[in-house]
Amino acid sequence: MAAVAAAVPLRVCHQEIVKFDLEIKAAVQDIRDCPGPLSALTELNAAVKEKFRQLRGRIQELEQMAKEQDKESEKQALLREVENHKKQMLSNQAAWRKANLACKIAIDNSEKDQLLQGRDVLRQRKTTKESLAESASNITESLMGISRMMSQQVQQSEETVQTLANSSRTILEANEEFKSMSGTIQLGRKLITKYNRRELTDKLLIFLALALFLATVLYILKKRLFPFL
């Protein structure tokens, strides 16, 4: 037992107990502030367990040193110190359990929030997809309406072209008829002109014949009435 006490001096044992106690308190605070995930909490708990194991070992060593003291007063003082360290370790263990509970509750709430956010995102994506599908349907309807309108316009254009073709054909036929009538009118004009000329000639011949007839009558009357002339 004396060899153990020599290997681990009393002062060094006190210092290590204080160090492990402070490290455990800091680790417990880290656990309380841990945002997650559970794997990070598991790593912190593993480190705290190791610190408790080392602290427990040093307290046991201090207790063994106390029992080996020759003076009863020093023995009792060290045993009281050992009890204080044990109480402090139990307090740290209680704080450790509370920190774990608080951390797990916080992680669970965070995971629930993330799940709800994920649902909201999925709902938004679903809404977006439905909106896109509705927009695509509206666009399709609009394109179909435009296509029908264009088809009607094309049909109307074809009908207009057909009407223009018929009108052009009618105009050509009327032009041909006009040309034919123009030829007939020119022919009639020539005939009228020729008739007018012949009428003038006929009138002149009739006038000459009448003049000749009157001259003949006058000549006969002259011979009968005035033979001595």
TrEMBL record:
TM ranges are 204-221
Q: Name one GO molecular function term.
A: SNAP receptor activity
Q: Which UniProt keywords apply?
A: Coiled coil, Endoplasmic reticulum, ER-Golgi transport, Membrane, Transmembrane, Transmembrane helix, Transport
**Which InterPro entries is this protein grouped with?**
Sec20, Sec20_C
Q: Kindly indicate whether the keyword Endoplasmic reticulum belongs to this entry.
A: yes
- What's the protein's topology in the membrane? Single-pass type IV membrane protein
Subcellular compartments: Endoplasmic reticulum membrane
State a GO cellular component annotated for this protein: endoplasmic reticulum membrane
Q: Which residues form the Sec20 C-terminal domain?
A: 135-225
Q: Which residues form the signal peptide?
A: none
| Chief place of localization | endoplasmic reticulum
Q: Which residues form a coiled coil?
A: 45-88
Q: Biological process GO terms, please?
A: retrograde vesicle-mediated transport, Golgi to endoplasmic reticulum
**What does the similarity note say?**
Belongs to the SEC20 family.
Q: What is this protein called?
A: BCL2 interacting protein 1
Species of origin: Ficedula albicollis
